[in-house]
Write a structure and sequence with these properties.
single chain; alpha/beta; Rossmann fold; six-stranded parallel beta sheet; 17 helices; 14 strands; binds nicotinamide-adenine-dinucleotide; binds uridine-5'-diphosphate-glucuronic acid
Length: 473
């Protein structure tokens, strides 16, 4: 690979494919990177001034290298045929029907990408699993490719992605580690080295870990499960704090001071969301079950159950504290994205909370700085697990939920409301004029802080009744 310009093609221009390839292109001017997708609108957006995803710092990176050594195209077959290294970063949602429905990963998109690679390739390829996949997927992919190979040599690598949304560019610039799994054969090792050379343009050697294929695939699922488990642990403790007068922020701080535990990722919340934690854990649970390990499966399932409990506990608290009924009452929802600094709403806890409040016949008024009304209506109309199927395959005009209005301002959302729920920790919610909000709300005015970001003492002085997660009233 060393004597000519290396060509990389990435299949899937989503939250992972777009930012990761943009950073590779920025850091490796000697490599040509083409990101391809079957979605025309997505590729058009990547080629426009309004990128399809909101991610701090991304615009700047794309501007620097687009048209230089970074390209976005719908000509999938041409660029796959020309590439030396093909990343596959397509979505791997949870299956909605058939064997393993509600748990197993749906590899339809992955398989069709693999078959297309086999169809169009005329030279040897390194195929990199970037998507999160069940352990042993590389074996399946190898079968598809080699059985259709026409004498071409394929090396499959597992290179899972650990970036978090909202900090994707930072995470890609300075990853804790890059993980590459490959076959332990001379050809396998050569392929691992080729991918290592790409990352070595900016990632220190000692942060690039190499393992066998199955360890790399499983490490991704395990990392997601461990991270989510910390949140469910602190959220479980938050329920006990509310019952006893302990303060979860103080408890988490004290617990996290133990260097063996560490301080990060211990913020109690309304529940975790995002496209991966639940999906990856369900995937892990299913694999455990298939391998005859029901005890292990049940252990991890509990992380999701606590998360569901945390969301329904939040709704119950809103309804019960507002005299057991929210029917016909206006409730403001501040924040709909699953975390701050992203417009992504996949599996956001806001969906379950809003559905819960709607179930009790509330009128809700939603404001999020990055999420459109169209997206919110689509999310509230969608069935569980349908969200991770590509945007362009979702119904474009769902019947709008009438009890929901979406506004472009926190003051508008809270005007005349009985209660206010903070569901995303956007910085701007910390500095709102809460006196003004209070003056325009019905009394008593309730605040339910699902992210523990407001100064509850100050709000109580204004006159609000404040409920935080895991804190004394
Ligand atoms: P996404 O839905 O944003 O992007 C996937 C893209 O793949 C879509 O644009 C879709 O049109 C395209 N696609 C599907 N089939 C295709 C095909 N056959 N040919 C060409 N394009 C095709 O998904 P994402 O969030 O980028 O996630 C991708 C993978 O990365 C998933 O497996 C996910 O679990 C994993 N992952 C995601 C994150 C994250 O933060 N979102 C982080 C780490 C890992
Ligand atoms: C997560 C992981 O952090 C990434 O390493 C991983 O690559 C990614 O999943 C993935 O596989 O897709 P992401 O979901 O983008 O990244 O964002 P996180 O910062 O992990 O937040 C996930 C959810 O947990 C959010 O709803 C967030 O608000 C919540 N959270 C996070 C808490 O409630 N408390 C915390 O202390 C931290």
């Amino acid at each position: 690979l060393s004597d000519k310009m290396v060509k990389i093609c990435c299949i899937g221009a989503g939250y992972v494919g777009g930012p990761t390839m943009a950073v590779i292109a920025l850091k490796c001017p000697d490599i040509e990177v083409v990101v391809v997708d079957i979605s025309k609108p997505r590729i058009e957006a990547w080629n426009s001034d309004t990128l399809p995803i909101y991610e701090p710092g991304l615009d700047d990176v794309v501007k620097q290298c687009r048209g230089r050594n970074l390209f976005f195209s719908t000509d999938v077959e041409k660029h796959v045929a020309e590439a030396d290294i093909i990343f596959v970063s397509v979505n791997t949602p949870t299956k909605t029907r058939g064997l393993g429905a509600g748990k197993a990963a749906d590899l339809t998109y992955w398989e069709s990408a693999a078959r297309m690679i086999a169809d169009v390739s005329k030279s040897d390829k390194i195929v990199v699993e970037k998507s999160t996949v069940p352990v042993k997927t590389a074996e399946a992919i190898e079968k598809i490719l080699t059985h259709n190979s026409k004498g071409i040599n394929y090396q499959i690598l597992s290179n899972p992605e650990f970036l978090a949304e909202g900090t994707a560019i930072e995470d890609l610039f300075k990853p804790d580690r890059v993980l590459i799994g490959g076959r332990e054969t001379p050809e396998g090792r050569k392929a691992v080295q080729a991918l290592k050379d790409v990352y070595a343009h900016w990632v220190p050697e000692d942060r690039i870990l190499t393992t066998n294929l199955w360890s790399a695939e499983l490490s991704k699922l395990a990392a997601s499960a461990f991270l989510a488990q910390r949140i469910s642990s602190v959220n479980a403790i938050s329920a006990l704090c509310e019952a006893t007068g302990a303060n979860v922020t103080e408890v988490a701080y004290a617990v996290g001071k133990d260097t063996r535990i560490g301080p990060k990722f211990l913020n109690a919340s309304v529940g975790f969301g995002g496209s991966c934690f639940q999906k990856d854990i369900l995937n892990l649970v299913y694999i455990c079950e298939c391998n005859g390990l029901p005890e292990v499966a049940n252990y991890w399932k509990q992380v999701i159950k606590i998360n569901d409990y945390q969301k329904s506990r939040f709704v119950n608290r809103v309804v019960s504290s507002m005299f057991n009924t929210v029917a016909g009452k206006k409730i403001a929802v501040l924040g709909f994205a699953f975390k701050k600094d992203t417009g992504d709403t996949r599996e956001t806890p806001a969906i379950d909370v809003c559905k819960g409040l709607l179930g009790d016949k509330a009128q809700i008024s939603i404001y999020d700085p990055q999420v459109t009304e169209d997206q919110i209506q689509r999310d509230l109309a969608m069935n569980k697990f349908d969200w991770d199927h590509p945007m362009h395959l979702q119904p474009t005009s769902p019947t709008a939920v009438k009890q929901v209005s979406c506004v472009w301002d926190a003051y508008e959302a809270t005007k005349g409301a009985h209660g206010l729920c903070i569901l995303t920790e956007w910085d701007e919610f910390k500095t709102l004029d809460y006196q003004k909000i209070f003056d325009n709300m019905q009394k008593p005015a309730f605040v339910f802080d699902g992210r523990n970001i407001v100064d509850s003492e100050k709000l109580r002085e204004i006159g609000f009744i404040v409920y935080s997660i895991g804190k004394p009233l």
